[in-house]
Amino acid sequence: MISLPVTIIYFVFMVAGLAISIGLTPVFIGIPLFFAVAKGMDYIVRFEQDQMRSLLGIPVHHEERGAPVQVERAGFWQRMMMGFEAEQFIRNLMLILGRFVSSIVFFTLSITMVAASLGLITLPVLHQIFLRTMDLNILENSVFALFQIDWTQTQQYISYMAAGVIVGMIGNYVIRRLMDMQRRMLFVADEEGQPYSIQS
After folding, report:
1. pLDDT tens across 51-86, in order?
2. Which residues, at least 6 apart from 3, have a Cβ–Cβ distance to it below 8 Å?
3. Do residues 42 and 92 touch, judged by C-beta distance below 8 A?
4. Rounded CA separation 196/99 (Å)
5. How many C-beta neighbours within 10 Å does residue 97 have?
6. Cα dihedral across residues 140, 144, 145, 149: positive or negative
7. Do the Cβ atoms of 58 and 52 come closer than 8 Å?
8. What tens digit of pLDDT does each residue of 131-173 get?
9. What is the full DSSP assignment across 3-23?
10. What's the CA gap between 69 and 112, in Å, rounded?
């Protein structure tokens, strides 16, 4: 649920940063700003991967890192471009864009499933509240009345609550699958020692 507002921030940062840096390219500050935004996008993807591992309880994979690069004798342009990879930049760009679009869909599905489950479970209580306070029978044209099923009010209450529990279980499964899809989108392996690569 928190992925939607967070990914909106990521998307705004990416679009605004790239647009400003490209617009300022004729001025000298545009190029350094581009590399700064690219580095920020890399940190965003790494943060999201760590958050996904933390939420799903996946052990952190310790990646092997190469020998540190000697930067003492590097010039200004070399320092600025150090660590920048075009392939990784495109991957981060697609990941943030994909997370933004998928978060809208996943947020809608999650809220719908949770709201439907809670609504069915609390329907008997709401029916009694409306009936006693406003003399309003919200179940007057219910499914049972539509199909002419002659069930008592208690039986209807139990059926609604049972349906709410079933919808909640289905929602729990759906949300877990959505989380797994998010994990795959972020190239996070489900087991330690099996990291995703860009090609996988």
Report:
1. 888 877 777 655 544 444 454 555 556 666 666 788
2. 99, 103, 106, 107, 182
3. yes
4. 17
5. 15
6. negative
7. yes
8. 888 888 877 777 777 777 778 888 888 999 999 999 999 999 9
9. HHHHHHHHHHHHHHHHHHHHH
10. 50
Scan for tokens 């940063």, then name that residue: 17
User: Distance between CA atoms of 3 and 184, rounded to whole angstroms?
Assistant: 15
CA dihedral 165, 167, 169, 174 (to 10 degrees): -160
Least confident residue range of 20-24, 32-36, 58-62: 58-62
Classify residue 18 by burial, with Cβ atoms within 10 Å: 0-12, 13-18, 19+.
middle
Per 3-state DSSP, the chain is made up of helix, strand and coil in percentages (nearest 5) of 70, 0, 30
For residues 16 and 18, what is the distance between their CA atoms, to the nearest angstrom?
6
Q: Which two tokens stand for residue 3?
A: 């992925």
Residue 196 pLDDT grade (very low, low, confident, very high; cuts 50, 70, 90): very low
Residue whose token pair is 């309003």 = 136
